[in-house]
Amino acid sequence: MAVSGAAGHRATVAGGTAAGRGDAARRGTGGPGVAVFVRLKLRLLRNALRGQRWRVVAFAIGLVFGAAVAVLAFLGLAATAMITPDAALVVAALTGAAVVLGWLLVPLLFFGVDDTLDPARFALLPLRRRTLAVGMLAAAFVGVPPLATLVASLGLVFAAGARDGAAAAVTALVGVVLTLLLCIVGSRAVSSAFASMLRSRRVRDLAAIVLAVLASSFGPLQLLVTSTATGGDLGPVAHATRVLGWTPLSAGYVASFDVAAGRPLLAVLRLVVVVAAIGLLLWWWSVTMESAMVGTASSSGRNRPAEATGGAVLSLYPRPLRWAPRTRFGAIYAREARYWWRDPRRRAGLVSITVSGAVLPVAFQVAGAGRHGHHVPLAIAVTMTGIVGGLVLTNQFGFDGTAYSAQLLTGVPGRTELAGRAAALLTAMVPVLTVVTTVVAVVAGAAGQVPVLLGCIAAGLGCSTGLSSVISVYAAYPLPDTANPFAMNTGGGGARGLLAFVAMLGALALVAPLTAVAVLLPGTLSWLVLPVGVGYGVGAVALGAYIGGDAVDRRGPDLLVAVTPRR
Amino acid sequence: MGSPDPASRWLPGGTVDVVLDQPALSLRGLVKQFGTKVAVAGVDLDVPVGSFYGLLGPNGAGKTTCLSMAVGVLRPTAGTARVLGHDVWSDPVTAKRLLGVLPDGVRLFDRLTGAELLGYTGLLRGMDPAVIDARSRELLDVLGLADAGQTLVVDYSAGMKKKIGLACALLHGPRVVVLDEPFEAVDPVSAALIRDILQRYVHGGGTVIFSSHVMEVVEKLCTHVAILADGRLRAVGHLDEVRAGRDLEDVFVELVGGRIATGQELSWL
Q1: How confident is the model at residue A290 (pLDDT cuts 50, 70, 90)?
Q2: Each residue of A136-161: pLDDT tens digit?
């Protein structure tokens, strides 16, 4: 069984051959082969899709989207055979850095990590850590993103072959495969490490800062790309790529240029850099994986300092929210506020959104600098930030999981339910976004536009909160019952991304009239945008709770079924 | 629990019209189908007021599905459920006010401490804050959860989670209590305590329905028994009627159709 399985594994998983061979040598000892893990993943994927039509649709859309991106990127990279080697080198280096950073950060910020094979599930089986790590890694290759990345980066191999001959092509192939391996190991290691960091209370603030720093590294990169695209001046960029080319980010992608230039040793050295990075990340990953297998959620909450106890009701309300009414609405509001802080999954969402809220306008500003000197891009960027801020609610009931049954058993009115939840999110979001927007505006030299921007952000946040409240009732999906805040169910990443995308477009459409007014209004009247925007946002939230609340009353039990994880 | 004011002053059923000759819980033709699989295939059951009712059944018999439909968290494919005459699905507000429920295999809002969770549940029930505080303190004391203090419910042991779930179910002083596997994962001392609390509650005029597959508990506690297997009721009635002079376990195994080990299988053990 294991032998035929290994052959099947090679057929299915391009790029996993190195791991497969190592496994073949060890098979005599009786441990399960990597093929077992790969087939387990495929089987889980198939079972997750069975009988769930919308999931199949989401999966198919993800597949088509992935294939389209892969083919386009392949063509784009293959076309670098036709430009000068210097320019091609720059493209290769920047592409490499973008791909690796994307793999490391995008799952953390937006999609979550495919958690089909959760290491914790293997804790009781007599598997050695190495067998497990190799198997999990091989299984991680099965999926749309790794295959799309592989196809796209093969364009580089094609270009190297066409321009510099077979030796360069082989080097490029090795470099590309190693970089893909780096991407997968890296994304696993980073998310696993973040999961355990965010679980423990002590380091959560540190984690937030690290994540912020990582995410803001997108900014300079974007600056580089933009100035390359617009300026056409390779001087400073070429210098940056020389540095990048020696980091694991781009080394694999630029190695073939050394072969072409008659310096094969340098190429080997670059590949060694990538291999070393993979080794380090593997070691880090297997260490964090072990802790993920042993202690789940054990470190949170013990020995917390006893607050002055003033009865059960008072203790429910966080200190700054003591003014809230002692009613159903107040209870939901207070509990949600506590949850945005205490639930690692929600905290992770909140942190990523805050960070992207800061990064997004800066990125827009950088991209638009020099061409549009006025406030149009900033207003739109800030509106987008507000919209992203409300999108966390699209699966608010999924966060609850089966705990939602408490709401059903007590017969909470749907409108109270949604209003309380929206109010808690706004309480967390409004101060953060106000500060971020003001700082961004001042840094961008547009301090005078602060009222306009705040009006835009209020409208964007309100529209997306209201829309997400309604969507959350109809499109709830279960989240896996693990302590990893980034974990997603099989095939769920695509669905989650799709849902967020639809919600974002909808909110954009809702807020468009106000943004248009904000942009078109003459400067002397622009202060009007603030009160109108706030009113617009508050109205959207109220409308969302009103419409969605009815749906909650009708669909309550169906909602509970929708968010119950399948066992 | 013979408590001083204000805990005893607040009665949820006070404003509710309770028809006295109605059964505490009445199920008619309850059916639940998941795809092609029939989990519950037509259950009719009347639970008299003041009874201590045990719902027995092997794993996968449909106990949880049945109780979930009875308390209004799972929509039945067909059939009705009434609590003291109030339909759970057409008049949920009244029915749910009369009910206290301890679900099984369901998470609580477990990132709250025990006291916070009780405060939350009480407010969701629309109770007076002073009453919530008094009753919470008492419940936490009696159930031995007061020491847990600031520990989050997610860090509780399985038995402690059951106990805080029970506290949430009893907080608003319901007329009918539905408990799914209340004794699972509970240590013997706590189990005795829970039994004691429930027995006093029944003596005080309340009604308890609970599911279990532990015969000893059911024989010791229950006035009435229903045996569920493959989604159908196999036996219903007074404990003595169902037992008919035999051991409850023998009756159960016979009705459910369990197999007896012949000694041939698992010879490698």
Answers
A1: low
A2: 888 888 877 888 888 888 888 888 88
Contact list in B for residue A316 (CB cut-off 8 A) is 112, 115-116, 119-120, 123
- Cross-chain Cβ contact A406/B105 below 8 Å: no
Per-residue pLDDT averaged across A269-283, rounded? 88
Q: Are A11 and A142 in contact (CB under 8 A)?
A: no
Cα A430 to Cα A454: distance, rounded to the nearest angstrom: 10
Question: What part of A 42-61 touches B (C-beta under 8 Å)?
Answer: 51
Answer whether A276 touches B (CB < 8 Å).
Answer: no
C-beta atoms of A338 and B97 within 8 A = no
Share the mean pLDDT of chain B: 83
Side chain identity at residue A255, one-letter code: A
Taking one residue from A and the other from B, the number of pairs with CB-CB distance under 8 angstroms is: 127
All residues of chain A having their beta carbon less than 8 Å from the beta carbon of residue B113 are 315
Res. A391 pLDDT band, cuts 50 70 90: confident
Nearest residue to A503 via CA among A456, A455, A469: A469
pLDDT in tens, B138-182: 898 888 888 877 888 888 888 888 899 999 999 998 989 999 988
Strands B176-180 and B25-34: unpaired
Alpha-carbon distance B134 to nearest alpha carbon in chain A (angstroms): 8
The pTM of the full predicted model, rounded to 2 decimals, is: 0.71
Determine, for residues A403 and B137 on separate chains, whether the beta-carbon distance falls below 8 Å.
no
SS (H, E, C) A521-562: CCHHHHHHHHHHHHHHHHHHHHHHHHHHHHHHHHHHHHHHHH
Span A113-133, pLDDT tens digits: 555 666 667 777 777 777 777
Nearest Cβ partner for A312 among B132, B151, B154 = B132
Residues of A511-536 as b/e, b for ≥16 C-beta within 10 angstroms?
A: beebbebbbeeeeeebeebbebbbeb
ipTM of the prediction: 0.85
What pLDDT is stored for residue A8 in this prediction?
A: 37
- Per-residue pLDDT tens over the stretch B180-219: 988 888 888 888 888 888 988 988 888 999 998 888 888 8
Q: What is the pLDDT of residues A300-358, one digit of tens each?
A: 444 444 444 568 888 888 888 888 888 899 999 999 988 888 777 777 667 766 666 66
Select from A156, A160, A146, A151 the least CA-distant residue to A68: A151
Answer yes or no: are the C-beta atoms of B178 and B25 closer than 8 Å: yes
Question: Is B123–A558 a contact, with Cβ atoms under 8 angstroms apart?
Answer: no
Q: What Cα–Cα distance (Å) separates residue B139 from each residue in A306, A562, B172, B189? A: 19, 33, 11, 16
* pLDDT above 90: percentage of residues in chain B: 10
Burial A342-380 (b: 16+ CB within 10 A, else e): bbbbbbbbbbbbbbbbbbbbbbbbbbbeeeeeebebbbb
- In angstroms, the separation between the Cα of residue B247 and the nearest Cα of chain A is 35
Is B174 in the A-facing interface, judged by CB distances under 8 Å?
A: no
Between positions 278 and 337 of A, the ones with CB within 8 A of B are: 297-298, 300-302, 304-307, 309, 311-316, 326-328, 330-332, 334-335
Instruction: For residue B124, list chain A residues with Cβ-Cβ distance below 8 A.
Output: 328, 331-332, 406-407, 410, 412
Strands B176-180 and B99-102: parallel
Q: Provide the β-strand partners of residue B100.
A: B177
Cα B227 to chain centroid distance, Å, stands at 15
